[in-house]
From TrEMBL:
It holds the Pfam family ABC_tran. This is Cobalt ABC transporter ATP-binding protein. It comes from the Bacteria. It comes from Intrasporangium oryzae NRRL B-24470. InterPro entries: AAA+_ATPase (IPR003593), ABC_transporter-like_ATP-bd (IPR003439), ABC_transporter-like_CS (IPR017871), ABC_transpr_CbiO/EcfA_su (IPR015856), ECF_ABC_transporter_ATP-bd (IPR050095), P-loop_NTPase (IPR027417). One of its GO terms (cellular component) is ATP-binding cassette (ABC) transporter complex.
């Protein structure tokens, strides 16, 4: 799969603070990336989640631009969201139907108008991720790891070119984190992932360190993690 270029040009996000004031929570950030695996680390409140949400238009820049494969997230937001899938920290934010099968079928409703075709496509997705045996269970009966994998199956069913994940291992134990890492390693998509798990952060081609709304390091994962550790130790 050809890599999709992600580009931010002086992207800034501000929020109102009352009395006509504003506060900058991210930026300005300029970045051009096309690596297969990109991880983002930073403290809570550093701006890394805002950075991720810029990539599919969940958040739009107050100033500057964000493009994915040359498509602007503001002017061409719907087109961007067709190629960029977003997975939230809590999989129950993604799983809105009673069962995983129904969620996968729901995500396929636009690409497969016929119910039999949609059902067959959903079955193929579930089998690909080894989830067919769990497909008809209540999502509330699944373990944390099973829910996370089911949520990934839902967002990947439409075959996006880019997958963005916001702290996907936060609710997982070691076994399920290992399973998640193995699943992510098997994907052809470009993956951009924010995490507090520094081992997971190293599973990348490039790592960004975000602090106080700015990218303060951009480079090799091991060096980025070392920079982040030093930043925390001296804060």
């Amino acid at each position: 799969m050809d890599r999709t270029t992600l580009e931010l040009r002086d992207a800034t996000v501000t929020v109102p603070t009352g009395a006509a004031g504003t506060r900058t929570i991210l930026g300005p950030v300029s970045l051009r990336a096309s690596e297969r695996r990109i991880t983002v680390v930073g403290a809570n409140g550093s701006g890394k989640s805002t950075l991720l949400r810029l990539l599919n238009g969940l958040v739009t820049p107050t100033s500057g631009t964000v493009t994915v494969g040359g498509q602007d997230t503001v002017r061409e937001g719907a087109a961007v969201r067709r190629v960029v899938a977003f997975a939230f920290t809590d999989p129950l934010s993604q799983l809105v139907m009673p069962t995983g099968r129904e969620d996968v079928e729901l995500s396929l409703r636009r690409s497969h108008r016929s119910r039999p075709e949609r059902a067959a496509a959903a079955q193929a997705v579930l089998e690909r991720f080894g989830l067919a045996h769990l497909a008809d269970q209540s999502v509330y009966d699944l373990s944390g790891g099973e829910r996370q994998l089911m949520a990934l199956a839902v967002v990947l069913a439409t075959e996006p070119r880019v997958l963005v994940l916001d702290e996907p291992s936060t609710l997982l134990d070691l076994r399920n984190t290992t399973l998640l890492r193995r699943t992510l390693a098997s994907l052809e998509q470009t993956v951009v992932l924010a995490t507090h798990d520094l081992d997971l952060a190293r599973d990348a081609d490039r790592t960004l360190v975000v602090d106080a709304g700015r990218i303060v390091f951009d480079g090799a994962p091991a060096e980025a993690v070392a920079h982040y550790r030093a930043l925390v130790e001296h804060s």
